Amino acid sequence: MKFFSLIVGLWLVSPVWSSAVESLVYFGTYTGAKSKGIYVSKFDPATGKLSAPELAAEMRNPTFLAVHPGGHFLYSVNEVNGGTVNAFALDSKTGKLTPLNQKSSGGSGPCHLAVDASGKCLLVANYNSGSIAALPIQGDGSLGEVAAMIQHTGSSINLQRQAGPHAHFICPSPDSRFAFVCDLGLDKVLSYRLDAAAAKLSPGDPPFTTIEPGAGPRHMTFSPDGKFVYVISEMASTISVFGYNATNAAMTKVQTISTLPKNFAGNSTAAEITMQPSGKFIYASNRGDDSIVLFAANRKSGQLTFVERQSTQGRTPRHFAIDPSGHWLFAENQNSDSVVVFAIDTDTGKLKPTGQLVSIGSPVCAVFQPQP
């Protein structure tokens, strides 16, 4: 047993891992009795050690966060009916956040946001109102007024969840020429042409890709080479794989695969999807089954093959994140107020619990900023 522990210890502090840069980790939360806003921890990728979180900014329901590509600013939503987005100056040495300004999100219940690669435009998805918006980012990191707002219309087959549009996710394409929106209420991934410099959006051609009726698309991710798109659907607990044409943003269906065990009989909804930086593995989370499921990704076809399923050691993993080195996964268990750290075997993609559990109230997002 001692020999096994020694081998595991050497594996966790291998030279490749120890060369990685230490990072700040910011956590978005639902606020309440155990949370007051955005929290920050320090993370050492050489050891997998995550420090106890400290309050970085007090605010209501900063559920989703995004770091500016320059690393000096952080943005958050306020997931409330009168939605806003917030800009902060980020001190990468201390982790301190200094408020810059706050602007309307252009809708109600903002739940996701992203910054384009140039750092000139903030995109936000409003779940309750089913709308999206683009805001210019000023030179000092502050936000301008909404420059583009688009209201989705329509519905799908689930009368309780899909009576109207619910924009759940928005992101730029790898080349920032397009923006994509997963709309849970419409069972569509909508595409828009993006003018990041002007923070403008216009309908794409094709304007959308249809997901199976009642599936409820929630989040998506691109393969590192930009050839494939992976869309996770909340209500059906499935991943849809598409080939991606970067010329016109068209998507071609490749595969649909379940995130749940065969013959699963309980209640569960899918949540987050992320590709490991190598492009070899896709991870997805299930709330109810309370698991992270791992798939191997075929780099030529994009197709996924099931590898393993791991308990998140908590309840309701609404989100999880992989650190920039690609060697660690943080599972955020919203309903058990915990962040659990797993080590990633980069050869197999498999997860190994490190024994670390950090307490934080209702964590639902984690983003990284390397320290200088």
Write up what this structure looks like.
The chain has helices at residues 2-12, 15-18; strands spanning 23-29, 37-44, 49-50, 54-58, 65-67, 73-78, 84-90, 97-104, 110-115, 121-126, 131-136, 148-151, 167-172, 178-183, 188-195, 200-210, 217-222, 228-233, 238-245, 250-258, 269-275, 281-287, 291-297, 304-311, 319-322, 328-333, 338-344, 351-359, 363-370. By secondary structure, the chain is mainly beta. Strands 1, 2, 3, 4 and 29 form a five-stranded antiparallel β-sheet that branches. A four-stranded antiparallel β-sheet has the order 5-6-7-8, with no helix packed on it. A four-stranded antiparallel β-sheet has the order 9-10-11-12, with no helix packed on it. β18 and β19 form a beta hairpin. The longest helix is centred in the first third of the chain and has 11 residues, at 2-12. The radius of gyration is 19 Å and the shape is globular. Mean pLDDT is 94; it is low at 1-18.
